[in-house]
Structure formats: C-alpha cells, structure tokens
Write a structure and sequence with these properties.
Elements lengths: L4 E3 L6 E3 L12 H15 L8 H14 L4 H7 L7
Helix pairs in contact: 1-2
The structure holds zinc ion.
Zinc ion binds next to loops.
C-alpha cells in the first residue's frame, strides 16, 4: 500500500498520513493543539493566517503548561523529540 505523506500544517514537517498517526495531518499532538488554538482564536478575530510570531507565542505558552506531561508525551511519540 502506498503511504501518503503530507506536511504538518503547523510546522511543515513531513507526516505519514496513516491510521496509526492519530494526530494526522499533524505530526504530533502539540501541533494539533496549536492549530486548533489558532483556529479558535481566529473565529472571533480577523480571519488571517497565523504568523510565525503567533505560532512562536503559542508554542511558548504550550511549553509552559506542558511540563508535567513531558514524560507521557515522550513515551507516546515513539522516541520523537520535540526539541
Ligand atoms: Zn508539526
């Protein structure tokens, strides 16, 4: 079976579009949450594409909130390290 690869809408990293990837078309939960967060914000603001600065800001916020779940994240992501 041919595997379709897409680019993560958040970070543009190539992602295999397979059922095993529960976050597809995103590369990871973090990118999915960033995109959902950006989308929710846009729904009551001007509909513009988030800038790189916006994404940096969102990632900083997620990093700050996510410290307690780092262990769980690294186990779920098959060794993929965010940094
Ligand atoms: Zn990504």
């Amino acid at each position: 079976m041919k595997t379709i690869t897409v680019n993560c809408p958040t970070c543009q990293k190539p992602v295999k579009y397979i059922p095993e990837n529960e976050f597809r078309p995103f590369c990871c939960e973090r990118c999915q949450m960033i995109d959902l967060g950006a989308w929710a914000e846009e729904s009551y603001k001007i509909p513009v594409t988030p800038t790189a600065e916006d994404l940096d800001h969102l990632m900083d916020e997620l990093d700050g909130q996510d410290e307690s779940s780092d262990d769980r994240d690294s186990k779920q992501s098959n060794g993929y390290r965010w940094q």
